Recover the amino acids of this structure.
């Protein structure tokens, strides 16, 4: 009991379904402008709502950097302190190895 289905698109019916406004460059640019304005309005509303809700009262680090990049100064000594930590860890490891080697029986 096998049924055979044939695919025959109804071209006249499909043609009746597509009664929409043709897309022109002017319509597309109007759409993009409306979309951009809505996106900006939503972002502004979100920022004002975020400030009105309380909670975190300041900006995030990224927002601060975008607002004024001059607030951030590279800290060259931060790298040096990381280097000192690494050097200290290496010294501790080498000291621990020397202690282990001292207590190993010699053959």
């Amino acid at each position: 009991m096998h049924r055979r289905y044939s695919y025959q698109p109804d071209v006249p019916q499909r043609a009746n379904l597509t009664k929409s406004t043709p897309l022109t460059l002017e319509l597309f640019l109007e759409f993009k402008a409306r979309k951009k304005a809505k996106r900006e309005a939503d972002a502004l509303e979100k920022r004002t709502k975020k400030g009105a809700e309380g909670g975190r009262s300041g900006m995030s680090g990224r927002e601060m950097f975008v607002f004024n990049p001059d607030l951030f100064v590279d800290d060259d000594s931060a790298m040096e302190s990381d280097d000192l930590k690494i050097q200290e860890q290496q010294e501790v490891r080498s000291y621990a190895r020397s202690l282990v080697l001292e207590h190993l029986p010699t053959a």
Observations:
- Residues 23-73 form one domain.
